[in-house]
Each structure stands twice: as structure tokens, then as C-alpha cells.
Amino acid sequence: QQPVQSPQAVILREGEDAVINCSSSKALYSVHWYRQKHGEAPVFLMILLKGGEQKGHEKISASFNEKKQQSSLYLTASQLSYSGTYFCGTSPGTYKYIFGTGTRLKVLA
Amino acid sequence: GAGVSQSPSNKVTEKGKDVELRCDPISGHTALYWYRQSLGQGLEFLIYFQGNSAPDKSGLPSDRFSAERTGGSVSTLTIQRTQQEDSAVYLCASSSDRGEKLFFGSGTQLSVL
Predict the structure, then answer these.
(1) Domain B5-106 architecture
(2) What is the pLDDT of residue A44?
(3) Alpha-carbon gap, residue B8 to B29, rounded angstroms
(4) Is the predicted pLDDT of residue A2 greater than 90, yes or no?
(5) Is the Cβ pair B102, A44 closer than 8 Å?
């Protein structure tokens, strides 16, 4: 039931791009993306709703394929501050959110 | 308060003791969530509240775990007869409505010796 994220981990140089994928076995109404830095609470990045509406971060984009029950987070021109663990959270349309397995991203100078 | 507040921030207890973890959500937020995060792992769903009701308790690991929410505000997660495998960070989050972003608290680090 837990969404599967890929890759599990990625290392980038500053300025490089990355894509993080989230795949669910259940029909989805919305997908959330969060970033968690070590020792801190997760912080909201993006919401994608069924129908294509997106709400969130200016420098990060995402896509939501309802039919495939997949979402992808696109990090372009990565900065050192992008380092952390990224989680997708999925909901079938209720209040309940199940989070994915996580993707650890490290950006090197 | 301005954000989600959790207390205590750290709790060390002995195996077999009961513990209570508290979450004070953002004022006016109707939905409240509890998640558990073991070291280096993802966010494990435990339970969520809509107002004072908990429509889905399926994530609670065993009958030693229980949670309540009163007045549509503060929530308490209780773990009875704690075991070493209960050691983890327990995160609380709240949101204003279905589909809206979750605001997380800083968590309670529980260590069971």
C-alpha cells in the first residue's frame, strides 16, 4: 500500500537536475511532496490534484499521471539547500495520507 | 501558537512503562495526523482525526497504541507497556482541510531502554 519511490538515493553536483518518481498501486486523488532535512520535520513542497491543479514551490515542478497512479518531482539547477530526503504522500481522496519510501538526495558543491 | 507543537521533545522510558505523547495542532485545523519514523526510515502512518473522530485506526501497530483528540484540538498518543521496538520519532501533523498541505511538528524522540 505504501507508494514506492525511485531512486532510493541520488548524489548531484550543484546545478545538475534530478527527477524523483512516486508510484502507487491505488487510485489517487492527490499527491503531496515534502522534503525532510536531517533531524528536522518534513516541510511541504508541492500539492498535485486530480485534474491537473498544482500548488507549491516556485523553483520545483512536478507532474501527476492519474491513469498510471504516478507522480514525478523535478528539481532543476539544484542547490546545496536541496539536500535532504524527499517523500511523496498519496491520498485516494480522503484525509488519510500514506507516505512513500523516501528518496535521499545529496547535492555537492 | 504559530505551528504544530509536540511535547515532550525527548522521552526516555523503561521497557514496560506507559508513555503519553502530546500534540497541539495549528488553531482551526480540523485534521490531525500521527506518524512514526524509525531511524533512517520513512513515515509510517498511525492514525488520523477529523475533528474528534478517528475514521481510520488501521495504522496503529498493536492494541498497546491508542490515541484521542478532544475539543477538536489537542491530541494524545498513548503507548502502553512500551517495547524496545517502539523507539522512534513520533511526528504529528495537522491540516486545514482535505487535500491541503500538512504542517508537521518537530516530533517526540522516544527511546525505550
Answers:
(1) Sandwich (2.60)
(2) 92
(3) 21
(4) no
(5) yes
pLDDT tens string A54-86: 666 667 888 888 888 899 999 989 999 999 999
What pLDDT digit, counting tens, does each position of B30-78 carry? Answer: 999 999 999 888 899 999 999 999 988 889 999 999 999 998 899 999 9
The one-letter amino acid code at B93 reads A
Cell of B113: 531502554
The fold for domain A4-104 equals Immunoglobulin-like (2.60.40)
Q: Which of B41, B45, B55 sits opposite A98 (nearest CB)?
A: B45
- Write out B51-82 in H/E/C secondary structure: CCEEEECCCCCCCCEEEEECCCCCEEEEECCC
Q: How many CB pairs under 8 A join A and B?
A: 58
Chain B residue numbers with beta carbons less than 8 Å from the beta carbon of A99 are 35, 42-43, 45
| Identity of residue A12 | L
Which residues contact residue A106 at a Cβ distance below 8 angstroms, ignoring those fewer than 6 apart? A9, A10, A11, A12, A83
